[in-house]
Amino acid sequence: MNAAFSDIASSGATVVRTWGFNDVTSPSGDYYQLWSNGQPTINTGSTGLENFDNVVAAAKANGLRLIVTLTNNWSDYGGMDVYVSQLTGTTNHDYFYTNANVIAAYKNYITAFVGRYVDEPTILGWELANEPRCTGSTGTSTGTCTTTTITNWVSEISAFIKSIDTNHLVGLGDEGFFNEPSNPSYPYQGSEGIDFNANLAISTIDFGTFHISWGETSDPTGWGTQWISDHQASQASANKPTIVEEFGVTSDQVSTYTAWYNEIVSSGLTGDLIWQAGSHLSSGDTPNDGYAEYPDGQVFPLIQQHAAALKARG
Q1: What angle separates helix 100-116 from helix 147-164, to the nearest 10 degrees?
Q2: Tens digits of residue pLDDT in 234-263
Q3: Labelling 174: which of 6, 79, 96, 213 has CA 20 to 30 A away?
Q4: Number of compact structural domains in the chain
Q5: What radius of gyration, in Å, describes the C-alpha atoms of the chain?
Q6: Which residue is catalytic, options 131, 175, 245, 263?
Q7: Catalytic annotation present for 120
Q8: Residue 128, domain CATH
Q9: Residue 8: pLDDT over 80
């Protein structure tokens, strides 16, 4: 952790987004919540939240702060579908947003995790979920989930976090979909259940989030530049900071990221978090899904230049 955080700090970055969840149905390695027959047990020991204490300590030692996401729309590290399966016996992903037992269990987890770090300045903010949608990895839902369903959930859960912790920022962690049903472009249509502007307007949401990973093939650079510009317009309208959290391409990286970085700096978007940081460790390289940026890679100097430009902008 120290080596990875040191590499990130050397890029000029000041904040790291990381996962604050790992739901399992059988104990193995590090995990934060164990589920058995519909009953969750939060792991507060050395393989559980004490491990996250180490994450916080390593970030602090390297002068970094953390944005911590509290569950996942996808099946990686458990996430929403574990709650739904364990408590409803179904694969209806959207029960995560509406089922009373599921909501109570998630609030129980939030109470333990967020409550542990209320007075920790290394935490910059909390996020309700990674990329929430009406459907998840199961691909199934009740068919009744709309943007209103998730916006209502965002309002309830963000207010709940604020009731526990008034010291830290709260964001959603979403992909930034707009809700314009007649728009010909899928990320603008609201079909996944996300209304970026409605969610950003919620009083207990402090900052906006969006991602760039839509497989736009005709002009990914230009499309992403417009996507950044449109979210900056929402930032200005809501008067709330907004960041692009996950962005990446696997070809023409330098030219594409240069264009996107220029748009971020010139437009006044609050900032960005590239997907994803890579390190060469003694045990081998950290995972690379094609988007990882290592300290000896061709993109790393560009990241350093961009970090300096953001700081110079103020």
Answers
A1: 40
A2: 999 999 999 999 999 999 999 999 999 999
A3: 6
A4: 1
A5: 19
A6: 131
A7: no
A8: 3.20.20.80
A9: yes
Give 180's pLDDT tier (boundaries 50, 70, 90): very high
50 DSSP assignment:
H
Q: Residues 26-80: pLDDT tens digits?
A: 999 999 999 999 999 999 999 999 999 999 999 999 999 999 999 999 999 999 9
- Return the ∠ at Cα 159 (arms to 155 and 160), rounded to 5°: 120
State percent of the chain over pLDDT 70: 100
The dihedrals phi and psi of 161, each to the nearest 5 degrees, come to -60, -45
Q: Which of 127, 175, 216, 246 is catalytic?
A: 246
Distance CA(199)–CA(127), nearest Å, equals 13
CA dist 137 and 91 (Å) reads 9
pLDDT above 90 as % of the chain? 98
Q: Is the pLDDT of residue 213 over 90?
A: no
Q: Say whether 50 is catalytic.
A: no
- Separation CA 143–CA 32 (nearest Å): 31
Round to whole Å and give the CA distance between 226 and 254. Answer: 18
The residue length of the chain stands at 314
pTM: 0.97
The CA-CA-CA angle for residues 173, 174, 175, to 5°, reads 130
Q: Cα separations (Å) of 239 from 106, 232, 270?
A: 30, 10, 11
Question: Residue 139: left (phi > 0), alpha (psi -120 to 50), or beta?
Answer: left
Strands (E), the chain: 15-19, 23-24, 33-36, 39-42, 65-69, 123-127, 169-171, 208-212, 242-247, 271-272, 280-281, 284-285
* Domain range enclosing 224: 2-313
